TrEMBL record:
Name by which UniProt lists this protein: Copper resistance protein
Keyword check for Membrane: yes
Transmembrane segments: 12-41, 89-115, 136-161, 173-194, 206-224
Organism: Halomonas salipaludis
Keywords, ordered alphabetically: Membrane, Transmembrane, Transmembrane helix
InterPro entries: MFS_trans_sf, UreH-like_TM_dom
Length: 233
């Protein structure tokens, strides 16, 4: 069953959302990736070593997304099972969060920053663990630091977690967040590997606008399918 109520497979949609959110990923995580890259001692800064560390960071980051997705989906399943109407509320919330995410990506409205501020309280307790892993010179260190980095307050991630609330199981929540995380890889790796031309393309206002409009269209379609009497209700 497609938890979105749409014909579009949810994992493919989550992956595409990760790709479309690339502009935000560069702004949010690009500086982190660059800093981690330059923190590697110059003698160890050859392509194979850097490539392994960058993949390690992102493997850890995506693993954290999966854990968060499983936890949120589990909560949604528990609460939704106690009250059937709650599932509908979660679906509406997920669509609204997607619209807010789109506005954020396009720089049309930054209301999602309010949600990010709430996450900073948790981040203050997690961030010191990351500092203890610096400087990173081995792949296991990179994976561990990436797992810490995955809890960095991010409106884009929170929007996808709201979608995880609508899913039927923690396994689906983890899979959805894994697909989303994989979608973010091109933008984040482009920054870490100094692929400036790709980074500029992703951050271009026109690219942001197309991404935002695509996500808004998806969210509105999802809301329409929830209306009584609609074809997908």
């Amino acid at each position: 069953m497609d938890p979105t109520g749409l014909d579009l497979p949810p994992l493919a949609a989550a992956f595409v959302f990760g790709l479309l959110g690339g502009a935000h990923c560069i702004g949010m995580c690009g500086g982190i990736m660059s800093a981690l890259t330059f923190a590697v001692p110059p003698s160890m800064r050859h392509p194979a070593r850097l490539g392994g560390l960058l993949l390690g960071y992102n493997l850890g980051r995506i693993a954290s997304y999966m854990v968060a997705g499983a936890l949120v989906a589990g909560l949604g399943t528990l609460v939704g099972g106690l009250a059937g109407e709650v599932r509908l509320v979660f679906q509406v919330l997920a669509a609204i969060m997607l619209i807010l995410m789109a506005l954020y990506i396009a720089n049309w409205w930054k209301g999602l920053l309010v949600v990010e501020r709430l996450g900073r309280r948790l981040w203050r307790h997690i961030e010191p663990f990351g500092r203890r892993l610096m400087p990173v010179v081995k792949i296991p260190q990179a994976v561990a630091l990436g797992a810490v980095w995955g809890w960095l307050p991010c409106g884009l991630v929170y929007s996808m977690l709201a979608w995880s609330l609508t899913l039927a199981s923690p396994l689906q929540g983890a899979a959805l967040m894994a697909a989303f995380g994989l979608g973010t890889l091109p933008a984040v790796l482009a920054t870490g590997m100094a692929a400036h031309s790709l980074a500029r393309l992703i951050r271009h206002p026109a690219t942001r606008a197309v991404a935002a409009l695509s996500i808004i269209a998806f969210a509105l379609w999802q809301l329409w399918r929830l209306l009584p009497g609609s074809a997908g209700h």
